[in-house]
Structure formats: structure tokens, C-alpha cells
Input
Amino acid sequence: MRFGVSTFVTDEGIGPAELGRALEERGFGSLYVAEHTHIPVKRESPWPGGAELPRWYYRTLDPFVVLTAAAVATERLEVGTGIALVIQRDPIVLAKEVASLDRVSGGRAVLGVGAGWNREEMRNHGTEPRTRMRLLRERVLAVKELWTSEQAEFHGEFVDFDPVYSYPKPVREPHPPVMIGGAGPTIFDRVLEYGDGWMPIYGRGTDRLAAKISELRERAGRRVPVTVFGVPGDARVVAELEEAGADHVLFTLKTLPEEETLRELDRLAGLL
Output
């Protein structure tokens, strides 16, 4: 099993370059960061994690700026989104951002994607919550087309463009992995149609995880990669996930100042 962290990088916590170096020095293999472009003041959508939305949701840095800073400060660290809100991003720009990150990092980029939960936030981007799953599908498929075709084109319900040249192309072949976040009843349909792996949040719809991983791989006829993020730093949980068949564990790293972050990384490193 591989190990990394998932976190919110903000203006109030450790910097991305410092965090990347600290992770690599302690033997972690990956850094995945969350995304929220903004949080509307009038918020009606319930946060799946509880009643009170934590402060770091309001203050996240742009994930691709963070991951680029971490990538150039390291040599081996995998850099990914956990998750990127694709329904709030232009797919042509997103394809260029991720391909550029993959180039800068020497092929270490991963695109974790999801449809989001904050309906007010997505509406500010012109996204209708009721159709966001269809929008997610088309934007991911369009990004893959832009990564892999010399003259890329896409014609769908929400995404529509005639042949274009889109550069750079990613380093990784055929492209950076697209990990599909979520744990709803149709998640495996999405993973198998347009994803390269499954990335659920630990504890959110992941009961009977071993059975679900087995079902996914049986349906696919292959070992679909599974990355579990938001994992507590507990040896018993690590053993549980290993037994369930997870390939990649991302420990939750709280958003803290540098000194406190380094102490927590030292503790988590003891679980590797």
C-alpha cells in the first residue's frame, strides 16, 4: 500500500513547498489537496462532514498553484487533487493546467474529481446542481480528449468545441490518472465509464468497503486502483484498509502552522 496525505492548504497553514519537502523527507509518497473557489456567505447546502463548516474551507489556495509549488520542491512526490471541482472549471483550461503540472512535475500529476456538495458555490459558476453529474462526465471526457488527441474535438450536451490544438500534452502515458470521488449508488458506473480509479472519503458511504472494492473490480474484470482519502491516523484503520484491498491511503492532515504540521507528520510517519 502507498501512503500520502490529503489536506487543505490555506494562507494560515504551512506553505506548499515546505509541506512537499517535509512529506518527501518523511517517506510519504503523495500530497492531495482540496478545492473550493469560494464559500457563499448565505449557505444553505449542508456540509456532509457535520454542522459547522471549518474555517479552512473558506481560505484554500488554488490547488494547481499549491501542487506546482510542492512539485518543484520535491523529486518523487505524487501531486494530486482531492478533489478538483470540475463542474466549476472550464475543461479546456483544466486540461492545460493538469498537463502543465504533469510536465513541471515530470509525470507525477493525478486528477481527482468530483461533483461537489455546495450548491450555492456551484451556482455562482453557472452550474445547475441537478445536472452536475452529466456535466462532470462530459468535462472529464473532454479533458481526456484534449490530452490525447492532436486535433481534439468534443460535442456534447454541455461541452461543445470543434477541433483544437491543446498543449502541452501530459508526460504520463496515456494521461494522468483521473480518480473519481464519491460513494453514491452510481459511483461505479462513473468510475468504469470515464475514470481510472475510485477515490472515496473514509467513513462517508464506505461501510462494507472490502465488499465494494471487490464488486468494483469484479465488474471491471481488472484491479481498479482505489485511493481512500480523509483517513484518520490510526494503525487499526490502516490495517482495515489494507485488508479491504485499498491501494493508496491518504491521511487527513489538519491545516496548521508549520511547526505543528511537522509534529503531526512525524506522528503519521510512524504508521508508514
